Amino acid sequence: MPENKTNAPMPYLPVTMVPLPPDLGVDLAAFDDRTGNGPAMTDPETPSLPKRRGTGGRRARDGSTASPGAPLMLSMLSGVSPDDHGAEELLDRHTSRNVARLTLDGRHAAVIILVLVFVLSISLTLLAQQARHVDSMTADTLPEASASSSARSVSPSGSTTSSGSTPSSSSASSQSPTPQTPSQTAPPAQTSSSSASTSSAAPAPSSGLIDLNAATAEQLETINGVGPVTARRILDHRAQNGRFSSVDDLLDVPGIGAKTLEKIRPYVTVGT
Amino acid sequence: MRAPRAERERGSADRRMMPAALAVWATLLARHAVGEHWDVAVMTAMGVSLAAGVAVLLLTRGGPDARPRKAAPRIGPQCLWHAAVLLAAVGCATVAGGLSDLAESRDPLIGLLGSGESGVVTVTAVATTPVMSSERREADCQIDMRVRTVWSRDVGSPSNATVRAFAEDDACRWRQGAAYRVSGTLKAARFGSATAWLDVDRDDDVRETSPPPGWRAMGTRMQEAFFAQTDRLGDQGRVLVPGLTIGVLGQDVHRQETEGASPVDDTYAGALEEDFKRSGIMHPMAVSGSHFVLAAELVRRCCARLLAPRWFAAVGVIGAYAVLVALVYPSDSVLRAAAMGMVGVAGLFLGRRSQALSSLNWTVIAILLIRPELSGSYGFALSCAAVYGIVLFDAAVAGFLEGLMPTTLARAVSVTVCAQIPTLPIQVMMNPQVPLLAVPANVVTSPVVGMTTLVGLAALLVSWALPGLGHGLVLLASVGTAVLERCATLLGSMPSGTLVWPDGVAGAIAMTAAELACAAAVAATMHAMRILRRDDAADAGIPDGAATGTPYRPTPMSRWTTWWRETCAMLFDVQH
Questions:
Q1: pTM
Q2: Are B117 and B82 part of one and the same domain?
Q3: In terms of domains, do B58 and B76 share one?
């Protein structure tokens, strides 16, 4: 309220206390703030002051002699300050965002470095976990120890190869054409698997070679390179086409090619 | 007058991490190249770059009375922050690479190899891939395993090496994810990614100590059911349908004897693979990110149709990725695609739009820091390079081509060209031949590949439960792969289809130089045309100073479409 001349802070800025720009059509001189009348609104068509065209910036400099705070009201109403450049300059500025983002801030750099260190720490944790296998290793050694002890008890029973106790020495036996039966009980082979039981059940041929015309499926399966399916196919071929006349007749069996034949040739023979 | 760069930057094209990602990769590669002088090299490089950075800062600061520059970008602070990030990235890569090399060199399995005792060892290992046909003539099947313990002469030591086990038919009953105790002869690997080879002689040298986890066994069962259906196709279907769907060519799959089908003709399969390499079509030989993009797109559309909330769609996409990773044959490009997809899902959770380039940069950094040995992997490099090419160049190339040809054709050609640009130097290192017809080959086959992949994935998902439906879907997929096969044999048999190129790193550098020369020629041509057109504009009376921006010029495609529209209207009186 204009008659409130005390120094209490006003909740709003009364229009009458602020100098108005001349071209709003308000006659400042007609206003009397002591009586509290409103400002006398002059007719906007009657030019009390020459209308000035131009940008706000230039107006500030021109209107400053008439009312020192004139541009303040316009600034407050429109949000444009006298420091802004002209409209032409505004249009000339290419402000379209068409460039890829590459600028970094200090905070961004700090966050990025922290994330990199975090990823590195994950990587080092995984590496350290891989190196600490002690738990799983002790679990693995126990059946290994029992297998090796049981094999040591079996091996004095006449295994022709020296693969009784250590896996590394069974390399000598793997390529030699000795009967497979005794060496199959060597560690780390399974001690209770079906193939061990079938191999122990099947009689080991004394000459070491298996007769194709007389062998059973279990005997055929003991050959390195012949599995249960191939053994069955050999027996089927023998049932359909009669006895084998030579080892090369195995090529007629489906599933046996030249490579397989060469692999099993040292173990088989054709009897009468 | 232009606004400063910070105001002209677009947040949706975030390239801030590219220098860091490339620095991590270059550090790990340089480590392999430099070898044991690595520490000295890193120290000198860091010292030199620090000194250079300080010098740049001091020089650009100016005197005490220099007025602050508002318009010029703040080069000094930018150099500082980027240099800090680069140093951190190089430091992390050095540490990760160094420790991983240290752990690998201390591995007892490597020690056994190095000491020359190539005798029989026993290992407990976990199978990490499915059984595949052996690449060596001496064995029937091969499988990659990650070793846990190695025994030699009754002494067991923990180990973490990767070993490739080769075995004969009887011993080939491996399952992915199961733990085995294997005895065999150890020898150094002559090729491939494993560090050592293990030759298994008898099937009782292999004992399964623990079965694969339930989900892994289910995945293997689904794969087996899928192969049972593809076995009933013709030769090209048997080779290509598994390749397009799972990422393994039909002749590389190891089928047990009990399944009954005869193996794929090796000669035909080898010739087909060679044709695909010569014609430059790489889709059927590797699973790329397109599988993951398809799966994510399907899930999102379903969730959108059901009006499900965003977190539901994100969980669904994660589930789809997990199923895909379990079913597809493991490879480095699958790892890249899955990791990048996960970053995208994080964006979906948060409700922010994800960016391919930013996801790829962070994926590269994370994967290379956690597994530094992947820096030398060709699959990973090809996969990342293709995505980098597409993300960086696709907008510009597609915009240029859309003026010359219809939009769909322009997009297909643009994706192919942009993927080829960074991958050609890497491809030349693997195979010193440049496929000249790669772009038309890929453009012709790309519409077929998407649908065929979808149909193949559907067959993979249902074959275990509904074999009949699976067979039908697989037949449909083989129709698509027949198109691929025709294209590959036609283009692969052309005598002038490939260009011989130098081998190795020299070939890669030569290819990069050739690509830069092509780009420079294109830029020079466009600049010359712009100058010529400016002369035309001057003749037309447009003052030089008022020409801001690109003057309008109708593209050939717009001329053609306008002519067509007007001809139709004229002749057939049809309003388009």
A1: 0.72
A2: no
A3: yes
